[in-house]
Design a protein that fits this description.
With about 150 residues, this protein is mainly α. The chain folds into two domains: about 90 residues, no CATH class; about 50 residues, no CATH class. It is built from five helices and three strands; from the N terminus they run αααααβββ. The longest helix has about 50 residues.
Length: about 150
């Protein structure tokens, strides 16, 4: 059988819990609990340990919440910095107003063929379907591409 004084020593002096004592003595938790209930100071010790565990749990929970909030703040700061950078890049790259037909033609000059008879640039359909904002043809005059003027 189990020695009561040994259980008393393990529980009250060494401050082991019931599960540890049961494993060490190779008996059930219920048997250890039954023996400990015979001691008058058991209920006081049990309440004291409950309060300690309650305080320890509250501290660990507070620490976990603190760590989680710090991680979220770091993520939020990174996200806000990325949004600011994206807004700055968008503002720098965006153009106010519309592109003129001349500017569009200059950007897409490879899709146009020059017609010498009419002095026009004509969109080449073999290059692909013409977007609605590109003109079908444009007169070549002094404002558009000097190399095509006669």
């Amino acid at each position: 059988m189990v020695d009561k004084s040994k259980i008393y020593y393990l529980y009250f002096i060494e401050k082991k819990n019931i599960v540890e004592i049961a494993k060490e003595q190779n008996v059930t938790k219920q048997a250890i609990s039954k023996i400990l209930k015979q001691f008058p100071e058991y209920h006081q010790e049990k309440e004291r340990r409950k309060q300690e565990n309650k305080i320890k749990h509250a501290q660990k929970t507070a620490e976990y919440i603190k760590q989680k909030r710090m991680a979220e703040r770091a993520n939020d700061e990174d996200y806000e910095a990325m949004k600011r950078e994206q807004a700055q890049a968008a503002a720098a790259l965006s153009r106010k107003g519309k592109l003129s037909d001349d500017a569009l033609i200059k950007l897409c000059i490879l899709h146009y063929d020059y017609n010498k008879e009419k002095e026009r640039l004509v969109f080449n359909e073999s290059a692909g379907k013409r977007p609605a904002d590109l003109p079908r043809s444009v007169y070549v005059h002094k404002n558009v591409l000097k190399q095509f003027r006669a």
